[in-house]
Structure formats: structure tokens, C-alpha cells
Amino acid sequence: MESGDLRIFQAVAHEGSVTKAAGKLGYVQSNVTARIQQLESELGTPLFYRTKKGMKLTTAGENLLGYTDRILSLLDEAVKSTQFSAEPKGPLRLGALETIAAVNLPKLLLHFHRNYPEVKPSLITGHTEDLLQKVLQYKLDGAFVSRRVEHPDVEQFLVFEDELVLISEAGDADRRELLNKPLLFFGAGCSHRKRLEDWLREEGINPTNIMEFGTLEAILGGVTAGLGVSLMPRSAVSKLESEGKLRIHRIPPRYQQTDVVFVYRKDVFLTSAFRKFVKLLRDQLRGSRAMS
């Protein structure tokens, strides 16, 4: 069993498709299929169910994937340990909620880049559950998520707190009227969306008119145009309110607070770049506490 075979197996397992895995790896599809078949022959057991909806792991495949993720992570760490010196450099793979990526991270990443120009950060956005899974699968070094998580393999610390507010187009409006407008959100995994749905049900309103958008800019554009309302961290919309482009409405206290937490695997290889980034986050946290 070679590491190359395991990487192909891992890609097919995570993508759920030979075609997608081949595209991701830069291989021809027939090569990926042949390598999977060779691995199954070597192990003497099928690793996938071939279905019309894609490749589904068998029980043996699920067991192998757990070991594969760990083995390949160790191999990658071995390479990192020889390449990365005490001077921070190399890749830093981060994930964040869309609002955090757009509002809170640009200045932080700029500060980090000025101090450590040899580090090459990359940033993807997603929902908390998606980001957590990418951290657990070693696809991300760390991620900014919307709540504390309960998982034995995760290390985490609070980065900052924010207040969730209801936003609508600028001008006066009756609260009941606002709450009956379409709700503008990201996909079903959005934690802010669930809070607003819970609040609406408490108000006796059934939240059925939901419009989903792929970006923060699209949601804010829809709100400012009067298309609907949304729930957002105050830090993400305070500038737009001051410019008169939208209106902020406070919500019941039990739904207000939102925590931004940085999560990473306990067994992740701590490159000098990752250690410096974590130190910057902790220093920022201490600084904000000293000012409060």
C-alpha cells in the first residue's frame, strides 16, 4: 500500500466522485479508477459502493479513511518539519465564517503578513460545521467558527464576542412588519439563521419565506434594497448603519451574544507560522481585554 494510493483513495472518499477526485488531483479518470481497484484487490475487500449518486464508503472504507487521514497528515507533517525553520514561512491554511472573513480578518492578516512576509496564508469560508470537519480532516490548520465545539480532538479558544442584530432597509418600520418580510441568509448550516428562526417561532411567526445567498455582499445588498431582513453581527453592519444604508434593530438578549472561536486539532503539527499566528490572536485577545 503506497502513500499515492492512499491520497487517491482519500480524494475519492472526500469528494464522493471519481471524476471530482481526478480533477482535484490532476489525474485522468481512468487512472484514479484503476488505482482504487488495485487498492481494493490488494486489501481483498471493496472500499466503495458504486451508486448513481456517486461513490459511497463501505464499512471497510470508512475504517481505512480514518487511518488514511492520520497517515497522510503525519507524512505532510514530516515534510513540514524538514522544510520550515524557526523563521515563519510556508503555507497557513485557514477557514472562517463569511462575516468574519469580510470584516474581522483583513486587518489581522495584513498585520501578520507585514511581520511574516514569507508565510503564504490561504482563507476559505463556510459554515461552522463545514469548517470544523475540514479541521478534523486536516484540510485546514485552523478555523474561526461561531461557537465552542465539543470534540476530544479539538483545541480552541475564544477570539472575541459580538452582538447579533436584526438589519433592514433604512427608515422607519413596524417590528411585526419587518419580521414577516423574507429572511435573507446563507445556506441551511448558518447558525445566525437558526437563531432568527427560533426567535420568530417564539413571536408566533412561521419562518417559511427564506432566500439563500452565496455571499455577504449579496445579503447586504438585498437588505439595503428592501428585499428582506437578516441577522448579522453588529461589527459587520455598523459602518453601513452610520452611512444611512440600513437600519439596525436590537433583538431579545437571549439571542444577542455570538462568540467567535478559533479551533484547531490538538495533534496538528505546529509550524512556526501557525505558532506565530496563534500568538497574534492571543495577544489581540489580551489587548482587547485590557482596554475593556
Describe this structure in words.
It contains 12 helices and 11 strands. The chain is of the alpha/beta class. Helix 1 (3-15) crosses helix 2, helix 1 crosses helix 3 and helix 2 packs across helix 3 (29-43).
Entry keywords:
292 residues; 7-stranded mixed beta sheet
Short summary:
With 292 residues, the protein is α/β, with parallel strands linked by helices. 50% of the residues lie in helices and 22% in strands.
Per-chain topology:
Layout: H1 3-15, H2 18-25, H3 29-43, E1 48-51, E2 54-57, H4 59-83, E3 90-96, H5 98-115, E4 119-125, H6 128-136, E5 142-145, E6 154-169, H7 175-179, E7 183-185, H8 191-202, E8 210-212, H9 216-224, E9 230-233, H10 234-242, E10 246-249, H11 253-256, E11 257-265, H12 272-291
Parallel strand pairs: 3-4, 3-5, 7-8
Antiparallel strand pairs: 1-2, 5-11, 6-9, 6-10, 6-11
Helix pairs in contact: 1-2, 1-3, 1-4, 2-3
